[in-house]
Design brief:
- The protein is an alpha+beta fold.
- The chain has a five-stranded antiparallel sheet with strand order 1-2-3-5-4, with helices on one face.
- The chain is built from two helices and five strands, in the order E-E-E-H-E-E-H.
- The radius of gyration is 12 Å and the shape is globular.
- The relative contact order is 0.23.
């Protein structure tokens, strides 16, 4: 069973914490530096009911320190494309 907590900005999901993972959306290959970091952190595609959720990845808690967590949360919010 999956349990989690989502954090929204302007009614849009910015990041979620599912079990022991931080999950957030990435636009894809247009951001190779993010994809390389995701690979280094052993990020895995988010799956719900056994099906992948397009563009969403989960980073295990063991791969994050406090500073890294702040960076990824900021990245999740920035990925919403909302005006600042």
């Amino acid at each position: 069973m999956m349990s989690g907590l989502g954090f929204f900005v302007d009614d849009r999901l910015a990041v979620a914490v599912l079990d022991d993972r931080l999950c957030l959306h990435f636009d894809g290959p247009g951001e190779p530096e993010d994809m390389a970091v995701l690979s280094d952190l052993a990020a895995i595609p988010l799956e719900v009911a056994g099906r992948p959720v397009r563009g969403w990845y989960c980073i295990p808690a063991a791969s994050l320190d406090e500073a890294g967590l702040a960076v990824w949360v900021a990245r999740g919010v920035a990925g919403l494309g909302l005006p600042m």
